[in-house]
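Escalated from tier 1: protoporphyrin IX containing FE holo job.
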Amino acid sequence: MKPAQLPPGKSGLPILGETLNFVADPYSFVKKRYQQYGSIFKTNILGRPTVVMVGPEAIEFVLSSHMECFSWREGWPENFKVLLGESLFLQDGEEHRKNRRLMMPALHGPALVNYVATMEDITRVYLKKWKAQQEFTWFYEFKQLTFDIASQLLLGTSNGSESARLSQLFTNLTNGLFTINPLPLPFTTFGKALAARNQILEHLTQVIKQRQQNPTKDAISLLIQSKDEDGNSMSERELIAQAVLLLFAGHETTTSMLTWLCLELARHPEVKERAVKEQMQLASKGALSLEQLGQMPYLEQVLLEIERLHSPVGGGFRGVIKDFEFKGFHVPAGWQLLYSIYVTHSLEEIYPQPEVFDPDRFSPQRQENRQYPFSLIGFGGGPRICIGIAFAKMEMKIIAAHLLRSYDWEILPHQSLATVRVPTNQPKDGLRVRFQPR
Ligand code: HEM
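Tier 2 regenerated the structure:
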């Protein structure tokens, strides 16, 4: 039998490979090669031979059926390891399983019920501020709002200026994740990210010490108290690493989706009208409640379409730790793997006219994502699906419901709404709007 061959594709220049093309526009890079080679191809990016996989079948292989071939720790670039530390995102095997179980209660079930009121209270403060301001840039406002929510619920931070300082530190940290020049000097992006990380660690150490003595209802107190089946809990070092991760992952992504949500609603008045109508029917039955959050099928469709068309995360890296074969191609251990969320969401055979914003794709009659499993993967999928998915969806619904029930907004002229994907997926100028009560 003929030995299986490596996937098609090019390795590019010596050392650099095809890194510069990839970093300049990761979406077009993968899309072009997908069209040329299909759902699996090889390249060389970020200093390593890399296999890229696209489409539901390939994604199911990576995220679910052949997970044992892949490592998260060996996959994410070095910057992630240095800046995000020894957190869930970079753990594998038994260590990951244990920590994920310890973290689940802080982000699911009864804990979430306790979070609703805080999410609403903080949202109201911002609505009032926006009403007074009338014109502002939504991306930056959502970043503060979602960070206030994350830091209050996760860390119990109730002081506005402390939250603003931490939020700025996280912006510096995030910028460092995506720089391809990780020189640790004080004036480089990476150096500033490292300095930000140190200040964040100092802050978290203090908070954890306080909560160990006086536990409250915030997520960090739940993490401190959480014990596995053998009675083990997380060490202080582990707690700090997981808290950095939760704060980082807990607001950048929701900021991106909320910004695109408000942009698409302003661009598509007919969609906004239907969403407003759904909210007004619910509002006539009483104030927003946990029960009501489960009765918003149209808003859910709109959010699924935002997840598809404007996924905040473009894809995921893995390290290949066991040789594997896919579609007759052989991939050796030691390679890097990238699975593409953006390009999977843009496949014509799953989503006809993929560039069109159309929430009815997800109506009960059409359900375009149900033809194949792993077609909609904005939150990843399989056993390591985003641990914050329920938290994020609840938060976005609460904010959207308040906006739709009482406010109107229009996009201000003279700004670029072009998509920028790195470090966070956003409209280039951040979406400047005029905002008023309805
Ligand atoms: C719109 C909001 C969000 C989006 C689109 C999103 C997206 C994702 C994606 C795509 C992954 C999987 C990455 C991969 O397979 O390589 C992931 C994992 C993760 N997310 Fe989220 N996320 C969101 C919100 C949140 C929130 C609110 C939190 C925490 C409060 C969070 C915490 C995490 C963590 C800890 C992981 C790693 C899980 C594990 O490996 O077991 N995310 N997220």
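The mean pLDDT is 94.
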